[in-house]
Amino acid sequence: MDHPQSDPVDHERTTRQHAGESLKYGANIPGVAGVAVAVVALVVGLIGLATGQAGVGAVALIVAIVTGIAGAVWLVHTHRRVRAAELRWEAAHSGSVAPPPTS
Predict the structure, then answer these.
(1) Contact at 8 Å (CB) between 87 and 98?
(2) Which of 30, 44, 91, 99 is the most buried (most CB within 10 A)?
(3) Contact 76/22 with Cβ under 8 angstroms?
(4) What is the 3-state secondary structure of the chain?
(5) Quick one: 71 exposed, middle or buried, by C-beta within 10 A (0-12, 13-18, 19+)?
(6) C-alpha torsion angle, residues 4, 8, 9, 10 (rounded to 10)
(7) Which of 47, 99, 36 has the alpha carbon at shortest distance from 72?
């Protein structure tokens, strides 16, 4: 699958251009990894608190919160970049108004 670097939207093969965007678009990998680390840290933190290790639990929960927020912000930022690229493409390739986002 060839995806040009400047336009991550798949205009030819789907009517839902953002389907699978978070996994296909390589710029999303840090955000997805951050959310995955947050989930693991949340589990470790809850296990730490449940077993009476308050220090480990608190640190893991703080890591979960920070990486979860950072990963979510990264994903929102890259999605907005994709949407901006989609709007630029629509403006350059059609005379009509760009369709509303499908995701």
Answers:
(1) yes
(2) 44
(3) no
(4) CCCCCCCCCCCCCCCCCCCCHHHHCHHHHHHHHHHHHHHHHHHHHHHHHHCCCHHHHHHHHHHHHHHHHHHHHHHHHHHHHHHHHHHHHHHHHCCCCCCCCCC
(5) buried
(6) 50
(7) 36
Domain ranges of the chain: 27-88
Rounded CA separation 76/30 (Å): 12
Judge contact between 52 and 43, C-beta under 8 A.
Answer: no
| Structure-token pair, residue 44 | 């470790």
Residues 34-52: tens digit of each pLDDT: 999 999 999 999 999 999 9
Integer-rounded Cα Rg, in Å, for the chain is 19
